[in-house]
Amino acid sequence: MNLAPENTTLRAALDDAASIIESELDALLPLAEGEERRLVEAMRYSVLGGGKRMRGFLVIETARMFSVNITCAARVAASVEMLHAYSLVHDDLPAMDNDDLRRGKPSCHKAFDEATAILAGDALQTRAFEVLAEPDTHSDPEARCELVAALGAASGARGMAGGQMIDMVSEGQTLEPPMITRLQALKTGRLIQYSAEAGAILGRAPGPLRHLIAAYGRDLGAAFQIADDILDAEGSEATLGKTAGKDAAQGKATMVSVMGVQRARMHAGHLAQQAATYLDSFGEKADLLRALAAFTVARRS
């Protein structure tokens, strides 16, 4: 598997998807009049103009594989980016990871204030589900219900929020690799898995194909988080756009902390290769998803 960080076809596809998602987010979050305008400004500040948009790209690309209209896919991609942005806003708060920098600019609670940041995260989360439930997202109510239920499962107590809880209570502890794998699968992996699976839900894909896409997303999410841990250990604030070295400073349990950088990098590469094998049934249609798996563990930011 070629793990070269530069793939011009993938880069172009990522850029195109990011542009589509940015436009959709802008349209779905219009500025309000009255006192609530400040809240919407904080929401837009947190979700527009930055980020890899990998989760949104996964939605768009898997939806394309199942011949889904780009308008529907863009709405779901924007929804997952809202949900992701909400998690980052809350994650940066003093009561959580207490980080003043996000995507190369002040965190939401520093640019506005803590109370506004809490409300902005809340409102981004609820808007994400509202978008999924709207008829413009899919003509089939069953598909919309599946998207809502799947995102709720991925982001709740048995998903992202639960993973964040484990992460918080585990600070300063030495965890075994299986527990770290579970922590990261919940905190990061479930939302990435959902992003891949969402395109299959939109396309009303048969169960076996949907399961393959979900398995791809699961292992991609695991590889992505380990790559993030490595970047946190080796990267700089300038390249990451956020505070580097946080994990070690806060005593976070990561694969890097128990394996070391080199073994963790090998493990991430293995997971990326494993993720790609789930795409064999899709042939050339899945080439960009294969390239994304390679890029995920080779990236430098």
TrEMBL record:
Alphabetical UniProt keywords: Isoprene biosynthesis, Magnesium, Metal-binding, Transferase
Cofactor(s) required, per the database record: Mg(2+)
Residue runs in coiled coils: none
Record SUPFAM superfamilies: Terpenoid synthases
Ranges annotated as spanning the membrane: none
Record has RNA-binding as a keyword: no
N-terminal signal peptide: none
Gene3D superfamilies: Farnesyl Diphosphate Synthase
Transferase as UniProt keyword: yes
Entries under InterPro entries matching the protein: Isoprenoid_synthase_dom_sf, Polyprenyl_synt, Polyprenyl_synt_CS, Prenyl_diphosphate_synthase
CDD domains assigned: Trans_IPPS_HT
Recorded family membership: Belongs to the FPP/GGPP synthase family.
Protein name (Swiss-Prot/TrEMBL): Polyprenyl synthetase family protein
The organism of origin for this protein: Acidiphilium iwatense
